[in-house]
Design a protein that fits this description.
The protein has 289 residues and is α+β, with helices and mostly antiparallel strands. 18% of the residues lie in helices and 27% in strands.
Length: 289
């Protein structure tokens, strides 16, 4: 069975220019025998993202009859306009063309001890059915003999490789799809096999892209003031609440914020847009300075 995101079927859906809230939050009623991984993948999502959105501590336990929120609504990155954009703490890859987001896919990223690098890149290669050559640094660090894995089911790169100008930070498929949505790679970005095939056909050598680090995203949508908070995977942001305040001030929305709602959104870090707007002005967070 082929799993394709009903939100973004084969790059046919486009979104307005960033920053904005896009998509619609959906729900799913758990059936007997369902598992969180299968539910998530059938909707084009990663199971850790579904677990966070629903405050599920143990993703191996999900009860029949429970109504799950599916994180199919999100805020686009604020400053990215072209090419592939990977927001590392969000575990999501966006594809932009001329300021329009054409697609969004869940991804696996680098371990906290072997991080996906932050920075701009260009696409340097597109290789179907690649062989995997263990990086010398990996062999040395793991104290193992360097190996080569030919194309096939045992190849960790899967069926497609998109090379970038950043060393050891390629974008590829995987023979371990349960790693999607987690920090388990040695710097590369992994996609579900069904997603990388669509992405591979949409990018070309020379395309630009960026690995970004935005655990906090904000957007104003109509009367709503939204924040989307993700865990600070690499511990690069000293204070997520202060980060949110600064971003909200930058878009001129701080005076419309209910601080209690903002603090709750930061504490929960569910990875979905949360409306923290209020009719009255928000006090400053002087007690947090």
């Amino acid at each position: 069975m082929v799993f394709v995101s009903s939100l973004l079927p084969q790059l046919e859906t486009s979104f307005p220019p960033s920053p904005c809230v896009v998509g619609e939050m959906r729900t799913y009623k758990v059936l007997p025998g369902d598992g969180l991984y299968a539910i998530a993948r059938s909707h084009g999502l990663a199971y850790p993202a579904v677990a966070r959105a629903n405050r599920i501590d143990d993703p191996n336990v999900v009860w029949a009859g429970r109504q799950l929120v599916l994180p199919t609504r999100f805020i686009l990155p604020a400053h990215c306009k072209e090419g592939m954009v990977v927001n590392i703490p969000e575990y999501r890859l966006f594809l932009f063309r001329s300021g329009i987001a054409l697609a969004a896919y869940p991804v696996a990223v680098g371990l906290p001890t072997w991080r996906t690098p932050i920075g701009s890149f260009s696409v340097t290669s597109r290789v179907p059915n690649p062989a995997w050559y263990m990086p010398p640094e990996l062999a040395e660090r793991e104290k193992v003999q360097r190996e080569v894995v030919e194309p096939g089911p045992d190849n960790p790169l899967g069926d497609f490789w998109i090379g970038t100008s950043i060393r050891h930070a390629g974008i590829h498929s995987t023979n371990c799809p349960m790693s999607v949505g987690r920090a388990l790679s040695h710097g590369c970005v992994r996609l579900y096999p069904e997603h990388i095939e669509a992405l591979f056909g949409a990018v070309r050598v020379g395309d630009v892209g960026e690995f970004i680090y935005e655990p906090v995203k904000v957007a104003v949508d109509g009367d709503g003031v939204f924040v989307e908070i993700h865990p600070d995977l690499y511990r690069l942001i000293p204070d997520l609440t202060r980060e949110a305040e600064e971003l909200l001030r930058a878009v001129g929305a701080w005076e419309r914020v209910d601080v209690a709602l903002l603090l709750q959104a930061v504490a929960e870090a569910r990875g979905i847009p949360v409306d923290v707007g209020a009719a009255q002005s928000a006090p400053t967070l002087n007690n947090r300075r």
